[in-house]
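User: My instructor asked us to take a sequence, write out its structure as tokens, and then describe one feature of it. I'm not sure where to start. Here is the sequence I was given:
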Amino acid sequence: MIRQDYIGRLIQQLGEALARIAKLSSSSQLAEAEAELRSAEEALGVPRGIERFDARSAALLLGGSDKVVLAALLLEQRARLADAQGNDAEGARHRARALALLDHARAQELAEQAVELRARLDSASRR
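Assistant: Let's start with the prediction itself. The structure tokens for your sequence are:
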């Protein structure tokens, strides 16, 4: 019960952070969006250097469940931010990483969001 409450609060907080990041990015406040993104990653407990791990190991570090989906959502925002900065290659790398993480997610409360995210990432990778 306590874990579900924790995950529920985390989902709510990160959902709010994702909305702020998207708003900042769309209004070209890229430095502020980057700072908000870093803060959200810290709140989720994404360790620095996690990008050096393979997706399976990264998912295990994150706990393998809804936190992995949240990390993939943050990567999607990081990809959008890279795109806004004109770095399409980095954006594509972040999207590929998000897809790889989703392959190892055992989503519970965020199962629907995981399916939607996968569809968006698949669509973006075909462009």
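For the description part of your assignment, you could build on this observation: The chain has one domain: 2-125. Try explaining in your own words what that tells you about the chain.
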